[in-house]
Amino acid sequence: MLTIRNATLADGREVDVRIDTSAGRIAGVGSTLTHSGDSIDADGKLLMPGMIDAHVHFREPGFSHKETWETGSRSAAAGGVTTVVDQPNTDPPTVDGASFDRKAEFAEASYVDYGINGGVTPEWDPEALFDRPTLALGEVFLADSTGEMGIEEDLFREAVEAATDEYRVVTVHAEDADLFDEEARERAGDDYDAWSAYRTAEAEAAAVERAVEIGAEADARIHVAHTSTPEGVDAAKAGGATCEVTPHHLFLSREDYDELGTFGRMNPPLRSEQRREAVFERVADGTVDIVATDHAPHTREEKDASVWDAPSGVPGVETALPLLLEEARKENLSYERVRDLTAANPADVFGLTRKGRIEQGLMADLVLVDPDASREIRGEDLHSKCDWTPFEGMRGVFPELTMVRGNVVYRDESAEYEGIDADGEFAEAVGENVRG
Ligand SMILES: NC(=O)N[C@@H](CC(=O)O)C(=O)O
Ligand SMILES: [Zn+2]
Ligand SMILES: [Zn+2]
């Protein structure tokens, strides 16, 4: 048994949390727990459920030079993420039994728990995928992005039906390439805003509408990945789907290209400041279900190319919760909203019934933070293989301690906790597949 004493929860309650470390579960939450066994004095600091990041690209197998399960999951743990959901655009793509099994072997190196999604290409093998502990189907690409896995509508419909028969959620990358602005293609390679002009907001809204229509016909559970526009969010919600927003679409806009260049290129692209604000409002008021990072690392060398040649994607798994906690510190979001967006809602959307909340009986996936300890984000301080961040110089509130099923996997070495004697920043890589 381990007790975290004097913790403050997102709703303001001051509690002790008792952890059954052998079961990895929360044994009790209350104010008058008896303190037998080990204990940590939280000294009034904030205790949050670990973030469930429903959208990461940890790049193995195939692209270990960009990220590995080890570096990606360390970055996750240091950012307060205790579960990640990995996407299928690896090499080989995760579309059949052999590729799933291969990825599952790499994932054993993970410091945090994980789900592995199955992908869809014309060669996919749904039976083999669903036979395995696949968390969800997706991201299913309705347009090409990194990995060129864009598929036609007929195959999408088939995939949605197959996933629904197997009780899997379908995560969709919703852009319609027919609505991309080909004229923008003529802009020069150093006009970085051309990427946003090319992959239009209309292309997102139209694809979301189509995806939720097809989903409704099949009675499917559709989850729209990385919605970047208020139109995309509204179309998803009106069609009965759930949706996620990334930190980059929440905190960056087309106005940041001057600073970011191709390091601000991703799919869907950055939008106008006006659209960014409208998306932020929908996150703050609870319309948006989830904040997920779409952590998509590429090396500096790869990114350092013309706007038409650079790969799409930015890292984000370590900075998402810190950026949101900074917004809460500034009272632009409530702590309860941050908790729901990062933990309770992703647990509900992906059926992770034993995760996402600080309640008796649930898994002890926990993050302890000093809510006032805001600091500048520096790429060189982060733990991803990707040594840059699009959020350089912005402020974040980083965790001091991250626990996965009762195991301390990360602690900030400058934070002192009586009762914790982990040596160094990271302890053991205890990550497991959330589907067993
Ligand atoms: N978002 C991106 O721009 N890139 C992602 C793929 C994706 O999520 O579309 C990647 O894997 O690099
Ligand atoms: Zn995508
Ligand atoms: Zn993605």
What descriptive keywords fit this protein?
436 residues, alpha/beta, Urease, subunit C, domain 1, TIM Barrel, four-stranded mixed sheet, 13 helices, 19% strand, binds N-carbamoyl-L-aspartate, binds zinc ion
In spatial order, strands of the major sheet run 9-10-11-12-13
Quote the average pLDDT. 96
Q: Which stretches of 5+ consecutive residues score pLDDT under 50?
A: none
What is the straight-line distance between the termini? 24 Å
Judging by the overall fold, what is the CATH architecture of the largest domain? Alpha-Beta Barrel
- The percentage helix is 25-40%
Assigned CATH superfamily of the largest domain: Metal-dependent hydrolases
Total domain count = 2
The geometry reads as globular
Coarse structural class:
alpha/beta
Proportion of β residues?
A: 15-25%
CATH topology name of the largest domain: TIM Barrel
Compute the number of helices: 13
**CATH class of the largest domain, please?**
Alpha Beta
Radius of gyration: 21 Å
Number of strands: 18
Give the names of the bound compounds: N-carbamoyl-L-aspartate, zinc ion
Largest sheet: 5 strands, parallel
Protein name: Dihydroorotase
InterPro entries: Amidohydro-rel, DHOase, DHOase/Allantoinase_Hydrolase, Dihydroorotase_CS, Metal-dep_hydrolase_composite, Metal_Hydrolase
Domain Amidohydrolase-related: 47-409
EC number: 3.5.2.3
